[in-house]
Protein: Copper acquisition factor BIM1-like domain-containing protein
Amino acid sequence: MSQRLCIAFIVALLSVQSVLAHYTVTYPSSRGFDDTKEPTAPCGGFDSVGTRSQFPLKDAFVEINSGHTAYSYLINLLVANEPAAADFSNNSANVAVATGTRSYPQAACLSLDMTKNSAAKAGANATIQIVYNGGDGELYQCIDVVLADTVPNWNNSMCINADGSASSSGSATTGSSSGSTTATTTQSPSTANSLTYTGGLMFAIAACLAFIIN
Structure:
């Protein structure tokens, strides 16, 4: 009986890890985040348009923090004032402005090519949809924006890649927004929690195995 309880405990911990491995949007702000609803299309359970922020048509990027060590992503741009869920399924309106893969966790600067959507013009209301897949299914988040030729308060220093690689949207850094590629890596709260959890999981598995063997 104790062995069964030990195994059940490990399974429960593994199920928690699948939640910790989700991703967050760190710049600019998304509509909202709920890790339990993130698999819900088209916007991770947030169906209503949120506060819009100005978003540049040139040198645009989205910054995310990934719990997975490898993932693929697709970023769509839907130009509309009040997009409904059905609008995100319209391939002629919801146009891909970025797609790719990353093979490291934590911070990633995802560059966008806004010219791919012919409806992207200064002054237009739009929604950016991020579709992320770390191998366990698609996860969704949305950012509501107003497109602009220039955005005075746009923060290029937020374009950070945790592996230290550069991005076409700015000088990517490792865990720093100072513009230096030699900065010391820092952990976001979600990453730190994930690492702490992983250590605890390994300890729990070792303890249970020792108990079962003995």
In short: Residues 163 and 187 are 13 Å apart (CA to CA).
